[in-house]
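Hi V.,

You were right to ask for the full record rather than a summary. Here it is.
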Amino acid sequence: MRPQTPTLAAVRPILLVRNDAFETFGVAPAALAQAGAPTRIWEAVDGELAPPLDDVSGVIVFGSSYNVEHADEQPFIERAAALSRGAVERGVPLLGVCFGAQLLAWGLGAPIRKAPAREVGFEPIALTDAGGTDPLIDHYEPGDRVFQWHMDTYDLPDGAELLASGEQVANQAFRVGPSAWGVQFHFEIDDTEIHLWLEEFAKEGDLERDWGKSAEQVLSEADRYLAEHQRKGAEVFRRFASVARDVAETARTAR
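Predicted structure:
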């Protein structure tokens, strides 16, 4: 008898971890819905307790205006790191975006430090040989421009494989084991989110003075690169949903 495909209602959701009040998740919700993956949101930054990993099929940890150095004053950082570490230990598919990538590295014992350059706007990346065969990001091409907004970087955790590098900041994507990824760049971002972040930053600082590019420069880059960036970012989420589904199905049939 042919095994039945689980109904959508029977599929455990993918957990979206919000680490910042101005995180909209960009292209992620629509891409995951298109892939048939239900989602659940953990408002980590608001102090909610994390749901059990048994209740989800995958975890996506998004960015933050906080850094790991704020862990002593922001308890959610330790909780999100613990969730990330637990997902790796239990084989629950995990995807960390920007701060989420740093959190994954930190939770696995790798140091976080200031990057050699502050990156904002669209910067080129190149895949390593491992990245060129990676199931999540092998659709990126050499020189593709991806959206950055970060001042920290990370060393690779023990056993991690580098998947992508940048011209200014070397470690741009890595994988730990078969189903845990950290990606430094904001492949999730869309036009609405870019404008929101720029508007919020303008209330407290000068982007060109503090980061080396003006908001106008960033928006000009978005006019050139964002459409393709959104297409490839959405594909990452669709692929992650497929990984989560495959892992869940393998676990189900093994029981």
